[in-house]
Design brief:
Helices cover about 50% and strands about 20% of the residues. It has a four-stranded antiparallel β-sheet with strand order 1-2-3-4, with no helix packed on it. Pfam families: TerB (PF05099).
Length: about 230
């Protein structure tokens, strides 16, 4: 004899509300549930009153969702704001490369020690084919484009509006996706390049202060990190 609970489980559901989903786009995103890059479908939904499983009367629109093709979990559309692993790696490489160029533009490229430190930093970030000659050439082009190197004060010109805007454009989108230690790491990589040939010059310190600001690091914390880096033996 079936129990009352078993009898209730066998009863058909006469009516309910069902969401009918329509795919309106797809792509690749970082799935929080899977912890990696996955294909997704962007879905819009319409709620329907169902009788015996048959959708009949509309009950309004459902909030759009992003469905992971692997685990089938639904996420808010904001999940697409998180960069994929591939995109995040590219953003980090670009950030390190831009900070390196900014520090070299401020401190100059005459020191072989500084160029060696710069190349090692950029290669560690994933640009394996970077050479001293490439960095030297890019910095010289930047200097020519901004009119530096012809009697101008490097401290005053080190981080003019153009370079400051470029640093913010590259670093600001990356900052929300980095933990505090990650933001500090980007700043300190630039600091180690600047310190490769001795203490910071005024222009290097100004550029590194701008880097800290672009990464969302408070000014006093940036100053502390730069001071500690200067006291740490290389």
């Amino acid at each position: 004899m079936r129990s009352a609970k078993g009898q209730r489980a066998l009863r058909p559901v006469l009516c309910g509300v069902r969401t009918v989903w329509d795919a309106v786009g797809d792509g690749v995103f970082f799935c929080p549930c899977c912890g990696g890059d996955r294909n997704y479908r962007r879905l819009t939904g319409r709620r329907r009153l169902t009788v015996l499983g048959v959708p009949l009367v509309g009950r309004g629109e459902a909030e759009p969702v992003v469905e992971c093709a692997a685990c089938l979990a639904h996420h808010a559309p904001e999940a697409l704001d998180h960069p994929t692993t591939t995109r995040f790696s590219a953003m980090l490489r670009e950030a390190v490369h831009t900070v390196t160029l900014a520090v070299l533009a401020a401190g100059g490229t005459t020191s072989r020690t500084v160029l060696e430190a710069a190349v090692a930093t950029v290669r560690d970030a994933g640009l394996d084919d970077c050479t001293q000659e490439q960095l030297f050439t890019v910095v010289e082009v930047l200097a020519a484009d901004t009119g530096r190197g012809s009697g101008t004060d490097p401290a005053a010109e080190a981080c003019g509006p153009t370079l400051a805007i470029e640093l913010h454009e590259v670093l600001a989108p990356l900052s929300p996706h980095l933990a505090g230690a990650g933001r500090e790491s980007v700043l300190l990589q630039g600091a180690r390049i600047a310190l490769a040939d001795g203490p910071y010059c005024a222009a290097e310190r100004q550029v590194l202060t701008t880097v800290g600001s672009a990464l969302g690091i408070p000014a006093e914390e940036t100053a502390r990190l730069l001071a500690e880096a200067a006291r740490t033996p290389s």
